[in-house]
Design goal:
Blueprint: H1 22-41, E1 45-52, E2 56-62, E3 68-74, H2 80-83, H3 85-94, E4 104-110, E5 113-119, E6 124-125, H4 126-133, H5 138-156, E7 159-160, E8 163-164, E9 167-168, E10 177-180, E11 185-188, E12 195-196, H6 210-214, H7 233-236, H8 243-259, H9 279-288, H10 293-312, E13 330-331, E14 340-344, H11 346-353, H12 380-392, E15 397-406, E16 409-418, H13 424-439, E17 445-453, E18 458-462, E19 468-469, E20 479-480, H14 485-488, H15 509-519, E21 523-531, E22 535-544, H16 550-564, E23 571-577, E24 584-587, H17 601-604
Parallel strand pairs: 13-16, 20-22
Antiparallel strand pairs: 1-2, 2-3, 3-5, 4-5, 6-10, 7-8, 9-12, 10-11, 14-17, 15-16, 15-17, 16-24, 18-19, 18-22, 21-22, 21-23
Helix pairs in contact: 5-8, 5-10, 9-10, 12-13, 15-16
The chain binds adenosine-5'-triphosphate.
Pfam family, one: Pkinase
Protein name: Serine/threonine protein kinase
Binding site for ATP: 72
Amino acid sequence: MAQRAITNFYINEEQSIYLLSHRDAKKHKQWLNICIKQLTMLGYKNVELIGSGAFGFVFAGIDDSQQHWVFKFSRITLAQSVRDRLEDEAYMLSRFDHPMIPQFYAFERVKKQGILMMARAEGEDLEQLSIRQGKFTAKQLLDLALQLHQLLHVLRNYRGGITPMPVVHGDIKPSNLVWDERSKTLSLVDWGSSVYAQLDASGQPIAANVMDLMSADVTNTNARMGDVYFIGDEQMSGAQSSPRFDEQGVASTLYALASAQSCRFGAQVIPAASLGLPKEFARVIDAMLSKDKATRDAGGDYFMRNMPTMARAYVPDNPLVRDKALIPVWKAQVATLPDTVVYSSRKQFLRQADSQQRLVDVNDAQLERYYREFLFDTGDTEKAFLAAISRLAKYPVVGGLSFHWKQSSLFVESSLILYDESLEPSFQDAVDNTVKLAQGITQKGLFKCCLFDARQTIQLERDATGAFKFEQLPQLHYDVINIPGTEMLRPHSYFEDGKDPDEQLQLPKKIIQCVFELNKIHHTGCIIFESLPQRLKIHHYYRLLDASQEVRFSQLLDEIMQYAMAIDGIGVAGFMKLPYKNTREFELCAMQSEDFLAKNPKKHN
Ligand SMILES: Nc1ncnc2c1ncn2[C@@H]1O[C@H](COP(=O)(O)OP(=O)(O)OP(=O)(O)O)[C@@H](O)[C@H]1O
């Protein structure tokens, strides 16, 4: 119990509600139900939760005249100053009357709870579409780029009366863009980071902001932080706000959708020029994502001038043809889809890149959101790799991956079981990206991650003496599939790689003995013990591959549970078992080779 207490850590609901303590999960559900009830009492029908972000929850409902409304609530757990931002967001949204921007309806306060009301943008946000569809086609991207170009014009040309007052949205990214396939229209939502621009695109102060100039506020930025996975370098480093910020958001968005990633950081290893896009378009995106400001700005200027012409070029409207998957994925069916969460050895991985050693005494198990604060010192490709790993958990999948960087090669072992066949192509894109990005990482070492179903996580509370409270000892869940005898002869992988520095929890020896015994039986799976002061969480998935061994297998799992009741330390420890020792080897590759639409018509036509 000598570990530092976990202080500033909170598992975000975004991870999975199933990982919250019973009490917190109940509170969370109750709160959502209260919101739904209140909105229903106000006369809205079909009220439902449609989104949740770091700052709030978003509900939708229908009024008497069949108008679709959206209600954005700020999280009550946030500081008042942060909650007040919802009112600023309401103000900026109310400035616009444009078909690509949801109409502002009202801002109201119920006790301390602010509620922003606006029109619902019909359709699906582009992050959801990207998860479902995988890489966007060139045609989709050009159509989208044209609409984004139009949006940038709307923002730049905003006027307060006769005075030009360009607006910076500040958070353009796929999840803030709602696409309606029926009407082919795009809407920009989430105005929580928007401000009046201080500078114009050429870096000159904007005359309308005389107040700022007079109040000697010329050096301070009024900019707000957008999503660190999508904002450009200037916004990240606290520069004064300018339309360049949104050009960067647009470039990041187009890049992320073209490559099926959830961030902008992969562009050095997987440039837009490698994605089978029209050459001119790909070059512009890469220029806009450049590390060099002059190149970025020139790219942005080119986009603003030429996007309409680029979008007019003929591009075949065919579905994507994908190369063979870099690593295999198994498919399976299940009645209830898993609520996937990923755990990884990323702390160790990040620490190596953390030059200022700010992570040394952080010992939390799961730092998904928390990592955002520590991303500054990490290389872009490492960030992109971690984001690509997180993206895997957006799919209904269980399994494990290990990446081992040795000499000049990358070795990947995997076991991935996807529970929705229709998502196979997009999941393949997501998995291939992890490999391509890993090929671009030069630091030596090992990275492993497990993907499990949070619904199956066993949680046991401790009493005042530290003993676990339960009526009946819960059982570890497993599936059985019998694979052909020939497959059984292949050597199975055996995942033991010495003490992992991230795993501070000392497990009872008996558990380790059981795991050794389990290893003799052909199976795949993972088990992670996460011991907190008040409770123990056991995350796991198991798949027995030799049905003849089921009796022994389930007996060992029961024993593991019994011995787990002796865990008294705090920390995390776990084991992962991959089914075969068929490690795939990949060469390191600093940058994927160029591939443009016109050059390779067979492949893309
Ligand atoms: N007017 C709207 N019409 C349709 N969908 C909307 C609307 N506003 C928000 N959404 C949906 O709700 C999600 C979350 O909304 P929003 O981005 O405003 O919340 P947030 O808490 O600021 O999120 P984040 O932390 O991701 O910035 C969006 O990704 C989008 O899918």
